[in-house]
Request: fold
Amino acid sequence: MADVHSKKQRSKNMAAIKGKNNKSTEIALLKFFRSNKINGWRRHFARLTGTPDFIFPEQKIAIFVDGCFWHGCKRCNLRPKTHTKFWDKKISDNFKRDKLVNKLLKRKGWKVLRFWEHQIKNKSTAKNIIKNIRKLINN
Reply:
């Protein structure tokens, strides 16, 4: 079916749609923090490069929870079957941006942790993530 909007108008419409973040995954990590009594974090710190999902300001730790689709997880391989050129570029651009954000934050003295959506959803992997975060915040 042909699009009723011009390419320019469609781009403008799509740009106006605001993401709702990866709420279910973030909430799962938030619950892990609370149930494991991990304190000192803040959520969605927009003033920091890349807007991490969680930060530990005192320890300068930035945590990102990357959605498997949007960030191109090789394990889950959630690639659409239509408009593949568009999606490949979009996901590639997200990957490049993630690398740049990591580099910029590290230059500012931040430790950057990135977790995949599937890691947070897996309870045993999530336990290891919590263990590693606890080690970092207690150092």
About this structure: The longest strand covers residues 61-66. Helices lie at 7-16, 23-35, 84-107, 117-121, 123-138.
